[in-house]
Amino acid sequence: MRSASRVTRAAVVTHGKPGQIGSGLARLQAVAQEHGVELVVSTEEAEKHGVVASVDVPVADVAVVLGGDGTVLRALARFLGSGVPVIGVNFGRVGFLSSMGRRDLEEGLGRVFAGEYDVVELPTLELDHPDGETVAVNDVVVASASLGRMIELDLAVGGEELGRQPCDGIICATPSGSTAYNLSNGGPVLMWGLEAIALTYVAAHSLHARPIVIPAGDDVIVWNRSADVEAGVLVDGRRVSTLGKAERAVVRIGPQRSLLATLPEATFVRRYRQSFAS
């Protein structure tokens, strides 16, 4: 989806450690002033940089992220349901979710503020767990709650049993999250446009446990079958629940979509080639 109007108001999201972005914020402010764009910050950002906050989730045309992929994912979660797309300037390592590098900040954001950007809608995950319901932008992880102790997980997909597996845990990742923890565990990268879940074991105690891709419409059910080890349930890296013996979590593609803004030439294939294939 192509943006058709100029940006008049932009939210700001930065890396958790302000020193990581150096002069990035000052450079952003200069570009915004040049293009007549008002910058707004949340309470969280204000505490980092010692400036006056606006609201917890600012109303804006676009959210500009100065940081790495983790910061972009945090911003996607924060602005979920607000209609505000998120565009990243990479101050991290890989920067797969970012449209431009730090050296290209002025030129790239100048184009964004002129309305020259696309918006990609990415699926989220809906999670049912013993303590309620939670939405994930990145991934849902069910993992051993005791460091160094394996757990046994029982899985079902689309109403059919997939089998029991001793392991450290399992990752259910969205396309946007497939290049994070999922990738580091040997899981597949899902191209944008797919409505699917990447299902990847963490340290499976088997030569036959392989990642699989689950289509939209199929629930993934994960039971903890361990006799004496609890399983933690994490959403986007944050623990939301615990599975005792025989308790379960259910993961599915949810109705909400996260909005990732990109420069027109910063396609998935180009990013993949630059980040992983070179």
Architecture overview:
There is one protein chain. The chain is an alpha+beta fold and 278 residues long. The protein has helices at residues 24-34, 43-49, 69-78, 105-113, 181-184, 268-277, and strands spanning 9-14, 38-41, 62-67, 86-90, 100-101, 118-129, 132-136, 139-144, 151-157, 160-167, 169-173, 196-202, 212-215, 220-224, 231-235, 238-243, 248-262. The relative contact order is 0.17. The strands form 3 sheets. It has a 6-stranded antiparallel sheet, with no helix packed on it. Strands 13-12-11-8-15-16 form a 6-stranded antiparallel sheet, with no helix packed on it. It has 6 helices and 17 strands. The protein is elongated, with a radius of gyration of 20 Å.
Task: Provide the descriptors you would attach to this structure in a database record.
278 residues
